[in-house]
Amino acid sequence: MNIGLIGPGEIGSVIVRKLRDAGYSVKMANSKGPDSLRELAAKTGAIPVSIGQVVQNVDILFIVLPDKAIPELPEGLLNKAKKETIVIDVGNYYPFRDDRIDEIENGLTDSAWVEKQIGRPVIKVLNTIVSNALAEAGRPAGSRDRVALPISGDNPKAKEIVAQLLDRIGFDSVDAGTIAESWRQQPGSPVYCTNPTKEELQQWLKNLDRSSLITNKEKGTKAHFAVEQRDPRTGAVIKRTDYQVIKRTDYQTIVNTYRSVHKK
Ligand SMILES: NC(=O)c1ccc[n+]([C@@H]2O[C@H](COP(=O)([O-])OP(=O)(O)OC[C@H]3O[C@@H](n4cnc5c(N)ncnc54)[C@H](OP(=O)(O)O)[C@@H]3O)[C@@H](O)[C@H]2O)c1
To answer: Bigger pLDDT: 207 or 28?
Structure first.
């Protein structure tokens, strides 16, 4: 299976590594060009290409961008992809980073907005796990602590293929519904960044209340930043507020932080 990935940054580079470890053929692109990806290419064996090339002749295309970068993609980019290419959206909408997007604020799901921008249906997956958990929490099938990830999309066959891919990189999955319903796995949902087992994920997806999403998204983000701004070794407050501070803390601490937001 041939895979393309746009945006091998914080989580995209982990996806590249996991896919390569599982034996997939991967090419990748960013906005700075293939030369800027030489180090990641040497580490993983993924092939750096231009944005125009990354979408061509792939079975699956991962889009791993902050939402504000989506409209910056070259116009008509996805016309160069095969009709059958499964396009995956890993992104989340955060207004502090992406600026305000009125359509999302007015109720369109994050991924429905992405579909409108790129002119193609997407499968939403891998947006609910922090990068260091994705790097470290994969387990063999049947492990009691195997993490499960929600998959949303309008094409059941494509969701099955994505579920098989997740299984190969160490994760269970649960079909979470359509793209219109994919708010169920957006920030603020109890399934977001909480590393549920399959049983937990099935259970938690059943009792969701969309009206609590915004408040819980704010609480989760605040709690996450509070944890990230403490040096994990000394406990001292780190004076950086940059989003990229993330990932120095072990993933279980981050998971516990998100879980605590949803404790009754
Ligand atoms: N980090 C996580 O743990 C995590 C977990 C789940 C989901 N997510 C979501 O995944 C998305 C990416 O997050 P991240 O933390 O990985 O961000 P990041 O570290 O900032 O990486 C962003 C990537 O996108 C590329 N990029 C930015 N603008 C581009 C453009 N116009 N054209 C092509 N490539 C472009 C960047 O490369 P250049 O700078 O070279 O363009 C970089 O490779 C976000 O929506 C985030 O919410 C993140």
So the answer is: 28
Cα 142 to middle of ligand 1, angstroms: 32
pTM greater than the 0.90 cutoff: yes
CA 128/CA 251 separation, integer angstroms: 13
Report whether residue 34 contacts ligand 1, using a CB cutoff of 6 Å: no
- Give the CA count within 13 Å in the CB-facing half-sphere of 229: 12
- What's the average model confidence in pLDDT over 131-160? 97
For 127, residues 6+ apart whose C-beta sits below 8 A from its C-beta are: 89, 90, 91, 92, 110, 185, 186, 192
Closest CA to 192 of 148, 234, 158: 148
Instruction: Please tell me the distance between residue 206's alpha carbon and the centre of ligand 1 in angstroms.
Output: 30
DSSP E strands in the chain: the ranges are 2-6, 25-29, 47-48, 60-63, 86-89, 123-124, 148-152, 172-177
Rounded mean pLDDT of 114-142? Answer: 97
Q: Where are any strands of DSSP class E within 92-171?
A: 123-124, 148-152
Could you give the domains of the chain? 2-205 (3.40.50.720), 211-261 (no CATH)
Atom of ligand 1 nearest to the CA of 132: 3
Question: Ligand 1: which atom is nearest the Cα of residue 30?
Answer: 34
CA dihedral 7, 183, 258, 208 (to 10 degrees): -160
Residue 243 pLDDT level (bands cut at 50, 70, 90) = very low
5 CA to centre of ligand 1 in angstroms? 11
What is the distance between the alpha carbons of residues 87 and 121, in angstroms, rounded to a whole number?
Answer: 7
